[in-house]
């Protein structure tokens, strides 16, 4: 069998002196494969019809047939064969006459890309043998009847992921006869979390069902004190999504030969998910104006985004962290890499990764937004992908952080990961990739620093517990929240936590210790800040409570600053300023209420309806400063979804979406979206305006295709109100 199959066209390519063949990073391009490859001069009487000839190849590729059932690929809405690597699949070959093993010789060829080469894994010849070796390419005959044979074919546990072309080659005395190019026999090979020899092997069946096969998920947002959740449709099995995901690897220019390695795939994907520096999938926008695009909050899932990118090849506008993470999760699960979406509450975006976020105060003790460059995101979403890490010492495999949101560059591009969660927990941040950045996101300290007139900095207060307070993901097999903070960090104040920090510092994470600064806090007075439940469009109260534990009387000059913020913690506008002097009696508590009126915040409200309050108080007798900050989320109304009539596969039914406008104003430019993976593709409808207190009703007719438990997800978007969601689980009956 020839090592590479050269055609005349290939020899004419302009080559540089460094490589023998051009870079090979398109799964789409093909080379010409000769149907008759002669060994020399062909005698005049030669007739290929005299030899064994392939009449038909049957791939058992229907969802109910053996291959897709055994390989857990029956959910893919794709007519071709899809199998997972390192596991046997069956095909049947019909010849023009019975096959005679003594004299007939044939083999299979799997090819990928424009320049197939055996040593690169892009040209795979498979001879038929008597036994299949686990984890290696091979084929054996399991059944013979009349003119047909049935083969069991095994793929390698390290083979390339993607779409292969299949040929059957027959040996004759004068040359090799091949089947004609037939795209119906193309075979997709994916990662196999069910196979012990695969780098992505996951040993728990419930976890595989969740992290590979579940096509809907939950995104947790809001903030630590007020965790909110919404559904997201991953839709990794929907039509054309698999091809779109393979296209992402072409777009990222990942060599075909590297596509069997989940570490490489995650690294390049984290760059191509965002549009910075490579025209990737999603353009981020955090400034609340989304002209010529879709507001990040309006998306209900990944499918629309991936398919739009696949057809237009241009970045899709717009995304924020949960959109990048949702699309990344679809990509990983689609290729067979177990993946989950993570939310880190109070996530540090520390511009110089020194584990210290500086909030600068002015003379009055208010935060100076000009000087303050670091920010604390209310929450930040990233992904974890499950794989072994043969490139690291033993013990750092398992969950790896990957992040497609563009925050900082890594090796010159906006990307992040894979970074081992184990390495982050133990402070071993020397191990690739980007562990120091992730370590800082979950472990920073907040320093409140006052600038003196002469330019010296005085540390007034340090908050060591706020950053990375809570790290969560969706629970396995349910919609509840699973707290995974302990996977990332030891308990605050434990010996292990200190040891992990010292390790991280030893490996180059910059850390200024509190001891370096002459900082003595006021320990005998506590200040607490609480907000009552706040509903969008209504007034609400906030409360400041002091506990004076000393025998002294104190007076506290208090500043409250209320800001409308992006969920990234960046301020848009201060909407509330309030200062007062509080008398603190010895050994007692004093409490103060402040009313926040809806008229103060409604005009400038941003889509996540998020406020950030800074409270600073100076104890006049000692000159010490107390500081506390807190994010407050407004309750946003939800959409109601209900179904009408019975839900049977193949029968038309209808779903009704309702919404009542709770604001004291008319909503303009209202758009509704509705989707359900396996039920209906996204439908959009525009409504001009919805007056205050009035209810909007939208009925959608659709025909569910498959029985089973499915989820409908809807969103509403308008100029004044965003982040409005609704969802409904529906059971589709068998006809």
From TrEMBL:
<feature type="binding site">
    <location>
        <position position="445"/>
    </location>
    <ligand>
        <name>Ca(2+)</name>
    </ligand>
</feature>
<keyword id="KW-0865">Zymogen</keyword>
<feature type="active site">
    <location>
        <position position="403"/>
    </location>
</feature>
<dbReference type="GO" id="GO:0005576">
    <property type="term" value="C:extracellular region"/>
</dbReference>
<dbReference type="InterPro" id="IPR038765">
    <property type="entry name" value="Papain-like_cys_pep_sf"/>
</dbReference>
<keyword id="KW-0007">Acetylation</keyword>
<dbReference type="InterPro" id="IPR023608">
    <property type="entry name" value="Transglutaminase_animal"/>
</dbReference>
<dbReference type="GO" id="GO:0003810">
    <property type="term" value="F:protein-glutamine gamma-glutamyltransferase activity"/>
</dbReference>
<keyword id="KW-0964">Secreted</keyword>
<dbReference type="InterPro" id="IPR008958">
    <property type="entry name" value="Transglutaminase_C"/>
</dbReference>
<keyword id="KW-0106">Calcium</keyword>
<keyword id="KW-0808">Transferase</keyword>
<dbReference type="Pfam" id="PF00927">
    <property type="entry name" value="Transglut_C"/>
</dbReference>
<dbReference type="InterPro" id="IPR036985">
    <property type="entry name" value="Transglutaminase-like_sf"/>
</dbReference>
<dbReference type="GO" id="GO:0046872">
    <property type="term" value="F:metal ion binding"/>
</dbReference>
<dbReference type="InterPro" id="IPR013783">
    <property type="entry name" value="Ig-like_fold"/>
</dbReference>
<keyword id="KW-0094">Blood coagulation</keyword>
<feature type="active site">
    <location>
        <position position="321"/>
    </location>
</feature>
<dbReference type="InterPro" id="IPR036238">
    <property type="entry name" value="Transglutaminase_C_sf"/>
</dbReference>
<dbReference type="InterPro" id="IPR050779">
    <property type="entry name" value="Transglutaminase"/>
</dbReference>
<feature type="binding site">
    <location>
        <position position="497"/>
    </location>
    <ligand>
        <name>Ca(2+)</name>
    </ligand>
</feature>
<keyword id="KW-0479">Metal-binding</keyword>
<feature type="binding site">
    <location>
        <position position="443"/>
    </location>
    <ligand>
        <name>Ca(2+)</name>
    </ligand>
</feature>
<dbReference type="InterPro" id="IPR013808">
    <property type="entry name" value="Transglutaminase_AS"/>
</dbReference>
<dbReference type="InterPro" id="IPR001102">
    <property type="entry name" value="Transglutaminase_N"/>
</dbReference>
<dbReference type="GO" id="GO:0072378">
    <property type="term" value="P:blood coagulation, fibrin clot formation"/>
</dbReference>
<feature type="active site">
    <location>
        <position position="380"/>
    </location>
</feature>
<feature type="domain" description="Transglutaminase-like">
    <location>
        <begin position="313"/>
        <end position="406"/>
    </location>
</feature>
<protein>
    <recommendedName>
        <fullName>Coagulation factor XIII A chain</fullName>
        <ecNumber>2.3.2.13</ecNumber>
    </recommendedName>
</protein>
<comment type="subunit">
    <text>Tetramer of two A chains (F13A1) and two B (F13B) chains.</text>
</comment>
<feature type="region of interest" description="Disordered">
    <location>
        <begin position="1"/>
        <end position="26"/>
    </location>
</feature>
<dbReference type="InterPro" id="IPR014756">
    <property type="entry name" value="Ig_E-set"/>
</dbReference>
<keyword id="KW-0356">Hemostasis</keyword>
<keyword id="KW-0963">Cytoplasm</keyword>
<comment type="function">
    <text>Factor XIII is activated by thrombin and calcium ion to a transglutaminase that catalyzes the formation of gamma-glutamyl-epsilon-lysine cross-links between fibrin chains, thus stabilizing the fibrin clot. Also cross-link alpha-2-plasmin inhibitor, or fibronectin, to the alpha chains of fibrin.</text>
</comment>
<comment type="similarity">
    <text>Belongs to the transglutaminase superfamily. Transglutaminase family.</text>
</comment>
<dbReference type="GO" id="GO:0005737">
    <property type="term" value="C:cytoplasm"/>
</dbReference>
<dbReference type="Pfam" id="PF01841">
    <property type="entry name" value="Transglut_core"/>
</dbReference>
<dbReference type="Pfam" id="PF00868">
    <property type="entry name" value="Transglut_N"/>
</dbReference>
<dbReference type="InterPro" id="IPR002931">
    <property type="entry name" value="Transglutaminase-like"/>
</dbReference>
<keyword id="KW-0012">Acyltransferase</keyword>
<feature type="binding site">
    <location>
        <position position="492"/>
    </location>
    <ligand>
        <name>Ca(2+)</name>
    </ligand>
</feature>
